[in-house]
């Protein structure tokens, strides 16, 4: 991708700028605009999330004390600790309690891909609008665009399903099922009740945008392919 961006930024300067928005009205350019927009929503809905899970703790001298654990992207939950009730009033039975799981790899893979796609779409749109004649006359550009489109469609598939699985695990690790694993809640005279967890609707939306991006890039393979010599050769053979 870096090599292609370098070619996009350097080579066209020698070819001359000719602004033409006509390609944006065709499927090739219109889909690229949608890919650019959807990539923004993908990394914004995932990378901008902040939430917390809350428990109600009762122990010696403490009744329904609210303890919270705040978590956010990139979802290294194993570094998130619950705020503690007064440990002295609990008879010293309360120790630091951490959430379980590290889901940063899947989340960062998803967000990083979305950011790279965002940057690539900008570069591609600059070529489509300002250097359409270069794109159509130089066969290397459509072929490179095709290769990147195929790879990106595959990466959206992998990253979206990996992130969807991680999101399901995050919901488990921040929901009511965490209480049986908290040792401090098992101390004599101590009870813990699950209170709430921040709605993860925006994270669900991020998965939807991942799927939409996967579909868009998969569909765009055909339109990019039509501008390559491979399609022209196939037509001549037929």
UniProtKB/TrEMBL annotation:
Residues 23-229 form the MARVEL domain. It is found in: Membrane. Its main location: membrane. The chain crosses the membrane at residues 109-131, 143-164, 203-225. It is a multi-pass membrane protein. Keywords: Glycoprotein, Membrane, Transmembrane, Transmembrane helix. InterPro entries: Marvel, Synaptophysin/porin. Coiled coil: none annotated. GO terms for cellular component: synaptic vesicle membrane. PROSITE patterns: MARVEL. PANTHER family: SYNAPTOPHYSIN, SYNAPTOPHYSIN-LIKE PROTEIN 1. Belongs to the synaptophysin/synaptobrevin family. This is SYPL1 protein. The gene is Sypl1.
């Amino acid at each position: 991708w870096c090599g292609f961006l370098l070619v996009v930024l350097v080579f066209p300067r020698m070819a001359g700028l000719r602004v033409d928005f006509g390609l944006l009205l065709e499927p090739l350019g219109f889909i690229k605009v949608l890919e650019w927009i959807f990539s923004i929503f993908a990394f914004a809905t995932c990378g901008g999330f902040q939430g917390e899970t809350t428990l109600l703790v009762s122990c010696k001298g403490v009744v329904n004390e609210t303890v919270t654990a705040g978590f956010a992207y990139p979802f290294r939950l194993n570094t998130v600790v619950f705020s503690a009730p007064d440990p002295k009033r609990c008879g010293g039975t309360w120790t630091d309690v951490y959430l379980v799981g590290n889901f940063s790899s899947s989340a960062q893979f998803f967000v990083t891909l979305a950011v790279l796609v965002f940057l690539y779409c900008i570069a591609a749109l600059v070529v489509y609008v300002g250097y359409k004649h270069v794109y159509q006359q130089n066969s290397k550009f459509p072929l490179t665009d095709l290769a990147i489109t195929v790879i990106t469609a595959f990466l959206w598939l992998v990253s979206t399903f990996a992130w969807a699985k991680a999101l399901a695990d995050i919901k488990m690790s921040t929901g009511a099922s965490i209480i049986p694993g908290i040792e401090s809640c098992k101390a004599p005279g101590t009870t813990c009740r699950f209170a709430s967890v921040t709605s993860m609707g925006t994270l669900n939306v991020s998965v939807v945008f991942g799927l939409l991006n996967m579909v868009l890039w998969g569909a765009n393979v055909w339109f990019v392919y039509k501008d390559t010599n491979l399609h022209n050769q196939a037509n001549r053979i037929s």
